[in-house]
Model the fold of this input.
Amino acid sequence: MEYIKIKLGEDFGRSQAGKPLEEMFQSMSPIFCLSQRTWKPQMDILETRDNIIIQAEVAGVEKDDITIEISNKAVKISGARGRTPPEETATYRLAEIQFGRFERILYLPSLIDTNKASALFSNGFLEIKLAKFPVNRLHRIKLSYR
Done:
């Protein structure tokens, strides 16, 4: 049998003192959000020899609600996740699931070929694969005479 360690007490490794009110209550309840309703999905950027791969956790977002814009230096991923309204008599005891619009602009570590980009959406994860331009690419130019 494996045991789960449980930490009890008020200090969970980070004090709430000194945080702005908006940040303290953002994850507690949606009604305390003082700014525009936005959220930030978690993302990873992986780099291989030939590609840059972006993985985004966007559970609950419909495929048609995601927009991907790519330049040779950056990727903009935006969209929206709708909220299922709670039952009228329900009272929030914990509200951590974020909803609403999101937008992330990721600056890439290498120049990419925008013509060789692909995206896959499966089981709440978005994966964008971007081909890098070869670094040691030689270009020959013709010399003209006057």
Remarks:
- The chain has a mean pLDDT of 79.
- The longest strand covers residues 112-122.
- Strands lie at 43-47, 51-57, 66-70, 74-81, 100-107, 112-122, 125-132.
- The first helix runs from residue 21 to 26.
